[in-house]
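Illustration: LSME1 protein.
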Amino acid sequence: MERPSLEINLPDTHEEGKLYVVDSLNNLNKLNVCPDGSQHALDEEENTGDTGENRTETNTRNQCLFFVTFILTLIVSLALVSFVIFLIIQTRNKMDQITSRLISEKKNIEELKKMNNMILKHLNQSGIKM
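Result:
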């Protein structure tokens, strides 16, 4: 989207008139660029007399702070994800160990059942009753 040009030909205006027109154009530009809530902040900046250099330093500082916060958030997220993956792997290993123990215990129980059945058969054949 191209914005229309805001060229104004002002023949023979005084210096104060030129400044008024420039201020009006700046205010119009701020209204077009800034969201509704930030216009109040811009008005306060005009009242305090901040220079362009201070705004540039503030913007640079804010951008730097944003990127540092963003990088720290990424590092913390990466650490949390790594910890969760570590816990998943540890849980999986423990579950494998428990499963192998259960399988071996199941085999032992089946062997005990077979031995119990053989003893019962032997007792039944010998005539001893319980």
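Reading the tokens back as a structure: The two ends are 99 Å apart (CA to CA).
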